[in-house]
Amino acid sequence: MSSENQQKPKALPPSSPRHVAIIMDGNGRWAKSRGKLRIFGHQAGVKSVRRAVSFAVSHHFDALTLYAFSSENWNRPSQEVSALMELFVRALDSEVKSLHKHNVRLCIIGDTSRFGMRLQERIRRSEALTCNNDGLTLNIAANYGGRWDIIQGVRQLADRVQEGILRPDQIDEDALCQVVCMNELAPVDLVIRTGGEHRISNFLLWQIAYAELFFTDVLWPDFDDAVFEGALNAFAQRERRFGGTTPNDANAS
Question: One of this protein's GO BP terms (predicted)?
């Protein structure tokens, strides 16, 4: 993708987003309210992932990015982390053929080197199977953090300077855009967070600079097409200025 795709976009009339990102929050509380272990909520959350992907395909999104496991989630109890890793493996095994059948390209973004070899192999196989699909791009953020993303991009640029490929004065927004995750995709238009919290939690800090934010109290396992549609309706009502002004603002005294 050329760097222009990641530059500040022109203001557009309200429309459906091309790229939606979701912070899937509330699995643990959903399970607790039912007297179950947290992993029960994560298992239920997989069904919501399936619904969200189906919705994105039917609405012809370019990309859907889901925050599955942050770099801070390693601080959770080891039993829960182990169960999440096993769930990730099983989900890849059970879902990738269906994704491929529906022309979905699967990408895992984040530092996957910390995962066990079994999971890393599943990731490689899943991405390879779907790499030539040209429908929806489904990004799963796993062991991902926005700060990590920016730092790994800066390190790439620093290496290029050290190798004499790049001059320090050539490092600008466009240069960094080309080395952060998802640099080949359209910028994120809409961020949805479920579970009632109103924060970004170190998610896609660079990529959501001009995204619209939508927060809902609905816990992730209960996230369905109606809630997704509500987020799109809210998005359609937003006036996206991208740091500029509207004609009315410009003419105001």
Answer: peptidoglycan biosynthetic process
In this predicted model, what pLDDT tens digit does every residue of 11-20 receive, in sequence order? 434 578 999 9
> Residues marked as binding for Mg(2+)?
25, 198, 212
Quote the domain boundaries for residue 38. 19-145+187-237
**What is the count of structural domains for the chain?**
1
25 annotated active-site:
yes
User: Does the annotation mark 73 as catalytic?
Assistant: yes
Phi then psi for residue 67, to 5 deg, are: -85, 100
Residue 5 above 50 pLDDT? no
DSSP-based three-state secondary structure for 69: strand
Predicted confidence (pLDDT) at residue 192 exceeds the cutoff of 70 = yes
Encode 138-166: b = buried (16+ Cβ within 10 Å), e = exposed. Answer: bbbbbbbbbebbbeebeeebeebeeeeeb
pTM for the model: 0.88
